Amino acid sequence: PYIVMVAKTAPWNTLDDMLRDMKTNPNTFFFASSGVGSVPYFAMMDLFKKAGAQVRHVPFSGDADAFQAIAGNRVQVYTSTAGSLDQYDVKGLALMDATRDPLLPNLPTVRESGVEAYYSQWMPLLAPKGLPADVKATLSDAMRKAMQSPEFVERLHKLNLVPGYLNSKDCRAFVEEESVRNAEVIKGLMAK
Questions:
Q1: What is d(CA 99, CA 161) in angstroms, rounded to the nearest whole number?
Q2: Is 164 helix (H, G, I), strand (E, B) or coil?
Q3: What whole-number distance in Å separates Cα of residue 175 and Cα of residue 124?
Q4: How far apart are CA 168 and CA 153, in angstroms?
Q5: Helix/strand number for the chain, H first, E second
Q6: Out of 43, 107, 109, 177, which residue is the most buried by the measure of CB atoms under 10 Å away?
Q7: What is the residue-level pLDDT of the chain in tens, covering all 192 positions?
Q8: From the CA atom positions of the chain, what is the Rg in Å?
Q9: Is the dihedral of CA 95, 37, 161, 76 positive or negative?
Q10: Report field, pTM of the whole predicted structure over 0.85
């Protein structure tokens, strides 16, 4: 899941504090994204729309530039995955998920602040259409084993990330559900 992040020196320690300040002072604060159309862009746009806050957007070419802008107070908030918490001088205010993360049990969810905006980074293994069933099964089994490998799990945990495995059928269903959900969010954000 993505995490709403601000500079460690920011005056806010909770998502509620930040949103309250942003709603009281519309168009005073700036949020970073890794470009219009990126997941961080839509995540923040969705969060602010649902919370009723007017925050200005500043696009960057990726995480490093966005976090540099946070350090220089050119933007006040960004969203990225948990691995960024230890790489940059930021603090997490809320997890963009419905439930808390067992690796970050003290980090509240956006839902706990009354906002239903869920975003995560997921990466399925893809193969060409028409792949023979036995090859598909071999790849799926190899991926399952990798996700259960203690070495791989340990490396992910060091980044505050949790592995997730879905078989081919469930992965396809997940991607289709996410596509429908994201299309609805995007249409809602783009509606005037």
A1: 15
A2: coil
A3: 8
A4: 21
A5: 7, 5
A6: 43
A7: 899 999 999 999 999 999 999 999 999 999 999 888 888 888 999 999 999 999 999 999 888 899 999 999 999 999 988 878 878 889 999 999 988 988 889 999 999 999 988 888 888 888 899 999 999 899 989 989 988 999 988 888 877 777 788 888 898 898 888 888 888 888 877 776
A8: 18
A9: negative
A10: no
Instruction: Name the one residue in this structure whose structure tokens are 């071999």.
Output: 138
Tokens 């839902």 belong to residue: 111
Q: Which two tokens stand for residue 176?
A: 């289709």
Q: Which two tokens stand for residue 110?
A: 């956006």
Per the CB < 8 A criterion, the answer to whether 45 and 18 are in contact is no
Structure tokens at 106: 């003290």
- Write out the two tokens for 168: 């081919």
What is the 8-class DSSP label of residue 38? Answer: S
Q: Could you tell me the two tokens for 153? A: 């799990």
Q: Which residue has the tokens 């799926």?
A: 140
